[in-house]
Structure formats: structure tokens, C-alpha cells
Amino acid sequence: MAERKNGAVAEHLNAPLGEPILQVRGLVKHYPLTRGIVFRKQVGAVKAVDGVDFDLVAGETLGIVGESGCGKSTVAKMLVNLERPTAGEIRYKGDDITKLSGRALKAVRRNIQMVFQDPYTSLNPRMTVGDIIGEPYEIHPEVAPKGDRRRQVQDLLDVVGLNPEYINRYPHQFSGGQRQRIGIARGLALRPEIIVADEPVSALDVSVQAQVINLMDRLQTEFNLSYVFIAHDLSIVRHISDRVGVMYLGRIVETGRDAEIYDHPTHPYTQALLSAVPVPDPEAREHRERIILFGDVPSPANIPSGCRFRTRCWKAAERCAMEVPLLAVPAEFRYEAGPAAHDSACHFAEEKQVVPQEEPGPVAPVESVEPPVEPTDGSA
Amino acid sequence: MLLEVRDLHVEFRTRDGVAKAVNGVTYSVDEGETLAVLGESGSGKSVTAQAVMGILDTPPGKITAGEILFKGQDLLKFKEEERRKVRGAQMAMIFQDALSSLNPVLSVGAQLGEMFTVHRGASRKEAKAKAIELMDRVRIPGAASRVGDYPHQFSGGMRQRIMIAMALALEPALIIADEPTTALDVTVQAQVMDLLAELQRELHMGLILITHDLGVVADVADRIAVMYAGRIVESAPVHDIYKAPAHPYTKGLLESIPRLDQKGRELYAIKGLPPNLMHIPPGCAFNPRCPMAQDVCRTDVPPLYEVTEAGTDRVSACHFWRECLNG
Fold it and tell me: So where are chain A's domains?
């Protein structure tokens, strides 16, 4: 017990390589619950985000997964300063942006842009595409001089794979996938370093989803962008992310490189989450272990004591109700360099493979599991 | 065969023209079988289901041709009153969005009990007892104390259970579930799909599962029918189709999804967009997006070819299904 407490939370073994461009420490957002109209008094708080730490390195993608209500979108809003944190720091190249205001804040905001989930409601239906994508230049005129803006917007349309001649069209003249491309073009307009994407492909059809993900992949290399990619779809997050953080009820419960999380999860919530994802392979269904959690996520206004996952956890013991598990490499894995040695906020962390492996691993049966289809040549 | 849909055509007449939502759909479900109807938005999968249930909005919708045989009888020849007796008692539907499908001003007990008072002539007391029994059956904790609660007092997963309970109330022979778990989180989705599969086995019902999620399909379906632009483009037993798709659209879909168990090369993306249903391309509707398209695809509508290799009982609406299977 004692050694766990000494484990420092943030800096340790598997901190990302390279200089972090964004450092988030102890980020908290509580929304007060009040009672009374004339005499308002606070009777509690919805603890949407309750102590989140992570680093983002230049050029990498950090995926944040979690179910609805876990606070992942609130984190996104705080990163772009649409919400002011209740506590905690967001350091962009060393400066805490939560303390900035005025001109300094404006300069930082230019570098952190957002792509929203719903391409149908995040574009103003009365503005043309040219106005939507060009609007950031009104606020940051130093990026593009007035006479040059139209050409800049056309370049952006071209970059995201839309016909530059569409500049005078309105959002309703585009399909969902095309609208999301417009949203991405708007995010790129100010040439930011960081893009926070909140469920950017969730509203799209499967065949269109792949187009947008590939576009985001390409743009990242082209413009050396860092992504914070927030989604509930674990397969998509694995595809795009270098590192992944799993959120539950306002906290990150497990974080590590993608293979560490997907192939060697140690937190029971991550294991349950991964085992619940349907895998598009009917051969896997017989020999796949499913962890079916009982119950629903507790209300963030009334978070369980100790470990917040304990009410749904099959491992929960007395200790879990008493002591909050810290996000650190669990003691049992601390001295080995294996993939299980990554941050996991569980008193009883244990490695468990839940995603069927490609190579005949412990879960695979005699007949080796092949991917159902191979990519066709030159089709992508 | 429990349900056979034959060559169904549905149109929507709008101010801007006629949208051909369903253009000759043929599929069948047997007792105890799960048929997954897979397709993207606008493929006609929900419209077909609504036509089967008899809840299509007419107008603007209109069934222009086809047969819907339920236990051998053509439902399209039924009068509305006869239809109503079938609906609910013999076949039932589970909708995607439980919150908007349940009546917000009636308690869930009242809505569940209504099935018994209307169809079975039960008294209110009996109906309430039945409602509690149903809620127990779909594993809602504390059913007896929650029977008087309103839909907004339940979580998303619980509401979807209530929808399932309502569909199961009269033990129908056929259940149509239209994206039953799309609005739910994965851990809750797993609970709900598990429950649905278990109840289906228990009651030996036919289940039509409408979805766009290739993962869910692989988990529960026996057979798959893939829809595109209002037609079935491929239909096959679930194992065969994932192993070797016989239509380029199915193949493209399977390749375009990111996988949980694989880290990513670039994803294959089907180019272009699904067609506008008012202007479906001539020939094969998929031809403008198809990497294998030839001249014949632009002129001749492919019939449903029997796929004789790689499994039995499968069809594909592709002139080049053989090439697709082998390449």
C-alpha cells in the first residue's frame, strides 16, 4: 500500500518521447448544482472532469476514449478554452493558458483549434463555405492579408479534398462527409499546431468515415499537427493514435501506447470496454471472452468513494472503497520493462488479453485466425 | 419460411421528384434465425422494415410492387384492421431511439400494460402484473417498484430494455430491431445485445437486425443481407461473407473499417458518395464508386447471381462476383 502512494503521478517511465507541446496537470471542471431562486446556494457539483493529467508531444496523436458522460468532451472544450477549468493547468509550451487573457490568450488560441462532432450543426447554414472557412482570418488578420483570403480558402478546400469552386456554396449543399471536411478546413485555416477533434467521424457512414480518417492522417504528416482525438469508438482510436488514455467518470484510468492498452490492458474497465467491442469477424465470436459489466455509469454528481469504477467492477474489494487508486505503473509491473508496465489506476491491476490476436496467441484456437480480407492493391 | 419479402418496391413522392428508396428487395427469415440487414444511411434498410411492419408513412411513401409473405399470407393484401392484429401480436419492432419512441407522459408500466389490455383484453390489474413480469424478464432491477416510473427516469440502456420488453410482450414470431444499440455505449450495447440474443433463443423468434455496424453483425447474425441504394447487393451466411465477400461494395465496407486487433495501415476508402435516390445511376447503382466497374456495369442492372463457389446459399448482384471472390 505504502509504495503505491509514493509513486509519482506524472513524470515516469513511459512518459512520451520528445518535448511535450501541451501539458495538462490536475485538470478539474465542476459544474455547481444550486438550489433556490432568490437565495441560491450550492448543494453539490457535477464533477465532469475530476483530475486529468496528460502530455501531448509535437506530431503525435493522443486518443482519449470513454463512454458518454465520462468527461472527454469537457476536456476538449477546456483545451481550446471554451470552458474555464475549475482547477488545474494546461501548459502550452510552458505557459498556463488557463491564466492567460487578452492578447496572449488570443495568440495561443490560434495554435489550438477544434474540429467538432456534428457536421450538421457546427456549420452556420446561412454562411457560405468561403465565409465559414475564412472567418478565423477576421479574428486573426495577421495570418492572411485581406486580399489574399479567398485564395487561401480555395487552397484549404483543395487540401481537404473539396473542389475549390464550391467556395460560394452553402453547407446544406454538401453531404455529411464533405461537411466534416469543411469543418477540418476551418480548423486548419490558422495553421495551428494542435487540433482537438471531438468525435470527428462518429456521425458519418462507414465508407465515408474511412475517407475522413485517411484525410486526417495525411494532414497530420503534411502540416506536422498534433492531435487530441476524442472518440467513443475504440477501433478508430487505435487506428489513429500513438498513445491512448481511457477515461471513466472524469478521470483517466489507464494510459499508454496503443499496443500497451489494446493488447495488454491492466485496468478492469479497459478490459471490459475492449471485450465489449464487437469485432467484425464471426470466427471470433465463439472463443472470445466477453466481460459484461452490470449496471450503468454512476452520476458524476455523486461519485463513489475510493475507486470510481468499483460499483461496476468484479474485482472490487474493501480497499477500493477506501483508497483512491493513483494513475501510475502498478507495483507488480514496475520493475519489468514489458508492455504491461504502463499507467493504470487500479489496486488490483492485472494483465489480461481481451482482444483476439492476429498471431495464434493464448485466445486463438488451432485454426489460425486470418483477417477476413486483405487490402486490394493500389485501391486506397 | 416465417417471412418472405419478394421484389419489394417503395417510392417516396416529394416535391422535387420521386425518390426510389427500395428497388426490388428480396429476403427471408425463418423461425429462430437472425438476419442482419446491413447498409448505410439511405440504403433503404429501414424503409423495407417499415413496409414489413406496415408503418410506412403513406403518403409520401408508396409500395409500388412486391409481396410480403408472413406465414404464407401476403400482408400487402390485408386490410388495415387485419394488419393491426398482426402488428404487435405476431411481429414487433424495436426502434433505435428509445427516448423518442416511448411516450414521455405515460409511465412505462402503463405503456407495457397497454399491450395486454388492447390485444388480450386484460384488466388493468392483470396488465400491471404482466408489465412487472416483463420488466423482470429484461432484467430491470427492482421492477415492482419502478413500474410506475416515467421514461426519463431510466438510463439509455434501461429504456432500450423497456423497448425490448414491449416488443416481446405478446411473444411475437418475428422481431425487427432497427439499430437497437446504435445510441448506446459499448458496455451497455453488449448487455442489450446479449439480452436480445438470449430472449430470441428462448422464444425461438425470427429476428431481423438492421444495422450499419459490421462488428455487431459478426457477433450475432446467422445470415447477412447487404443493401445499397434500395437493393440487396449480397446475401450470404455470416461466416462466408466475412471470409470471402462476393460483391465489391461488401468488400469495400469490410476493408474500410478500422480494427481493434490491428494497428493501422492506411484505411481503404470507398471513393465517392452513395447515390441520390432520385437519380440512381443506370446499370449497377454502385458502378461510379466501384474499382472493378466495366462497361456492362454502366448499362445492365446485375441480377442476383447464385454464388456457387465459397459457400452455399449465397447470392451477389455483381456481374463480376467471381473476380471479386478471387481477387
Answer: 17-34+45-241, 266-359
